[in-house]
Amino acid sequence: MIIQKATIHDLESLTELFDLYRIFYEQESDREGAREFLKARLVNDESVVFLTVDGSAPVGFVQLYPSFSSVSMKRSWVLNDLYVKKQFRGKGAGEKLIQRAIEFARERGAKGIMLETGKENQNAQRLYEKIGFERESNYFYYYSL
């Protein structure tokens, strides 16, 4: 398996994975919507996506969005999406994708990477903690719209 920074040329492979990712989170399949969403992120340089492939088969991806910390005056990254096809889980692809994301953030002098996951997603929690992520206990996060 190799990991590469995704470009617009990877759009079809990413679309397949992104649609599966959304289905995992109980959304209706919408390949065209997924394609357009990803295309906009890539064309407008609004996210960084790393893709892992096995031969020519897309295996998984991680997507990072930029954010900033006013206090530290540094960029940080939000690890918003991580997905590995079911048949490739447990083989290290997810861990390698996250490690590549961390490496990318370090190379750019980022303050850090933040992520969130569902309380019920214990597999993901174990993976994040294994890699060194710590559960936040000093802050409350609020959401509104």
Write the layout of secondary structure elements.
Layout: E1 2-5, H1 11-24, H2 31-43, E2 48-54, E3 57-69, E4 74-84, H3 93-107, E5 113-115, H4 122-131
Parallel strand pairs: 4-5
Antiparallel strand pairs: 1-2, 2-3, 3-4
Helix pairs in contact: 1-2
Number of strands: 5
Pattern of helices and strands: EHHEEEHEH
The average pLDDT is: 93
Please tally the helical runs, counting DSSP H or I stretches of 4 or more residues.
4
What is the spatial order of strands in the main beta sheet? 1-2-3-4-5
Low-confidence stretches: none
Q: Helix/strand/pairing class, anyone?
A: alpha+beta
Largest sheet: 5 strands, mixed
- Report the span from N to C terminus: 40 Å
Coarse morphology: globular
Q: Give the DSSP E fraction (strand runs of 2 or more residues).
A: 25-35%
Helix content: 25-40%
- Computed over alpha carbons, the radius of gyration is 15 Å
Label this structure with key terms.
single chain, 145 residues, alpha+beta, 5-stranded mixed beta sheet
What would your notes on this structure say?
With 145 residues, the chain is α+β, with helices and mostly antiparallel strands. The protein contains 4 helices and 5 strands; from the N terminus they run E-H-H-E-E-E-H-E-H. A 5-stranded mixed sheet has the order 1-2-3-4-5, with helices on both faces. Helix 1 packs across helix 2. The chain is globular.
